[in-house]
Amino acid sequence: MLTPKQYNLLMFINKTLKETGCCPSFDEMKDALGLKSKSGIHALIDALVERNFLKKLPHKARALEVVRLPKLKPSSIIAEEKLKEEALASSTVELPLYGKIAAGTPIEAIANESEKVSVPLNMIHGGEYYALTIEGDSMIGAGIMNGDTVIIKKTNVAHNGDIVVALVDDCEATLKQIKKDGPEVLLIPKNEAYETRRLPASRVKIQGILSSLIRTYH
Amino acid sequence: MLTPKQYNLLMFINKTLKETGCCPSFDEMKDALGLKSKSGIHALIDALVERNFLKKLPHKARALEVVRLPKLKPSSIIAEEKLKEEALASSTVELPLYGKIAAGTPIEAIANESEKVSVPLNMIHGGEYYALTIEGDSMIGAGIMNGDTVIIKKTNVAHNGDIVVALVDDCEATLKQIKKDGPEVLLIPKNEAYETRRLPASRVKIQGILSSLIRTYH
DNA sequence: AAAAAAAGAACTAAACTAGAACAAAAATCA
DNA sequence: TGATTTTTGTTCTAGTTTAGTTCTTTTTTT
User: Fold this and answer.
1) Domains and CATH numbers, chain A
2) Residue A207: strand, helix, or coil
3) Alpha-carbon distance A129 to nearest alpha carbon in chain B (angstroms)
4) Sign of the dihedral defined by the CA atoms of residues A73, A75, A81, A85, in that order
5) Looking at B138, B153, B154, B202, which residue is catalytic?
6) Tell me, in Å, how far CA of A134 is from C1' of C26?
């Protein structure tokens, strides 16, 4: 019934009429549709008048009236709205920033929910996540630098080779690569200046595995 | 249907009519709209009568009647819609993923706008951005690993020490730290297995500086 | 290559502002 | 009640700004 441009213009006119009580000018409509010249608006309005969606007083300023609204939307508009909804749904998630890791304190203790990090939803795939700020250079060999923000997926199981948040003796949390060795666990830093720690599995709790990393320069 | 002035006047008339029970005079209306002459009020009232919002007894004092008011959307609904729009606006940005860097081809040549990366809006601060996938390990010392996604801010100026996308001889693009040395430019990899290149400034074009980095595990 | 959409510019008309002069209505008062 | 004053509405003129119309050219699309 209507072209997408006609539909958008009609909706814009209707919206400004309802919101401000007064009719938009040709220039305002031109801006709303992202056009650089208002001559095109003329044609669109004529088409809308012809199709009996608008009434206008010719040669009067801001003298348009919406007669009716279409029951059907142009299919491209429907597609666009779907995209927008998806964008809204899939936009970002606000994750709690639990503080700095490798600082020797368990994560829950630091938990300060006030700070948040926003992360694109496509970095998140089911489950619960939180963020940490990296302190120190013990994982520099894995490209994890001092000051980086890491996104951690909450879990208490990990596979060999995963980089995990490990809580040792319920008091010291660090980000390390994990390797299971029978009844013991290896926490492997990725920096030759640090030594691998070998601990009985009972002393180590996994608080999550590394899911992604965000770094901002400057 | 109405111009802003007409709308304001109509609302003022309606308001004083409801509040005081009697119609404002031309001078009162003139003052209410901040005009210095009441002749303009006349024209506005004529327009409102013509559009059937007012009725008047000519040559009678304070003899206006409001016929109807433009129907507005409740402001609560407007506020809600604004919130949604803002949420949408502040969510993520879709940046073009221009391909892999350190592959020896200029970025524009690879440019394939179909691939996109979504990035939280707070990573972006004015200017134009694009994304690249890192190939190779020449910047591993700076925590930039093979497969990482880097967000680049378009610019052709950089300061010493910045990590930039440098185009050499219009054909080879790499991500390196830059240092200016008189008429020459140093492109410094962050990996001892690679050597710093020293080139005349004329052969090097900066295509952007590193703004942030995103890495996904698994 | 033809048709449609958009841009641009030029033109015309309407909207707005201001000031003043005047006429009609309303209020006041003898 | 009738005369007088005050308030209020009407009508000009004139200039400025804003807005609508129309036309030609350019760009995009098919």
Assistant:
1) 4-88 (1.10.10.10), 92-214 (2.10.109.10)
2) strand
3) 14
4) positive
5) B138
6) 83
Question: Strand pairing partners for B169?
Answer: none
Chain B interface includes A213 (CB < 8 A): yes
Its pTM stands at 0.58
* Distance from C-alpha of A100 to C-alpha of A132, rounded to nearest angstrom: 6
Compute the distance between CA of residue A40 and CA of residue A56 in angstroms, rounded to an integer: 16
The CA radius of gyration of chain A, in Å to the nearest whole number, is 29
The residue type of B85 is: E
B120 vs A: CB within 8 A: yes
Max mean pLDDT among A120-124, A169-173, A180-184, B131-135 falls in: A180-184
Question: Which of B171, B147, B174 is CA-nearest to residue B163?
Answer: B174
pLDDT at B97: 57
- Mean pLDDT across chain A, nearest whole number? 84
Note the pLDDT tens digit of each residue in B63-96. 999 999 998 888 888 887 887 776 665 555 555 5
Please report which confidence band the pLDDT of residue B107 belongs to, taking 50, 70 and 90 as the band edges.
low
Question: How many whole angstroms separate alpha carbon B104 and alpha carbon B138?
Answer: 13
Of the listed ranges A170-184, A185-199, B104-118, the least confidently predicted one is B104-118
Smallest CA–CA distance from A153 into chain B, residue: B217
Read off the tokens for A131.
């963020």
Distance of CA B2 to the CA centre of its chain: 31
A214 and B214 within 8 Å at the Cβ level: the answer is yes
Rounded Cα gap, residues B178 and B165, in angstroms: 9
Chain A residue with CA closest to B79: the answer is A19
Helix (H) / strand (E) element for A216: namely strand A204-216
Kindly state whether B91 is in contact with chain A, defined as any CB-CB distance less than 8 angstroms.
Answer: yes
Residue A26 φ then ψ, to 5°: -60, -40
Which residue shows structure tokens 């994990």? A178
